[in-house]
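Action item from last week, closing it out:
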Amino acid sequence: MSDRIEKSITLRAPVERVWRAITEPAQFGDWFKVNLENKRFVVGETARGRVTHPGFEHVVWEATVAAIEPMSRFAFTWRPYAVDPNVDYSAETPTLVEFHLTPAPEGTRLVITESGFDKVPADRREEAMRMNDGGWTQQIENVRAHVEA
């Protein structure tokens, strides 16, 4: 089993538009379905917000910004599929989520990669990877709808 998920799409939007959608917290929250109003993404800092996706409103989304490389790469770490309110996930090693943007003739090529699943505890690794794989499939469509609107 691989320790990474990778999704890619070519978006009919300029790099600047896609960049804002993934790095401005309010826009990120709109398509990702998390309330990040009045938040900031700053390298080394953790952003938190309540998930707004139906059925997951009890989850607090938490990610630590790992990199902001303007117009090309945004990255954060988080604990994948950490949705059980009765479990303390804080001792787990987080995975790394990276958004890579490159100009394309049609607009922007976006590649989303999540790696480090080999460090997720064995008892929840397979489920976390399966759920996040499906989640990223949906999220890449959400960002497409957001930037192409």
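Closing note: The chain has one domain: 4-148.
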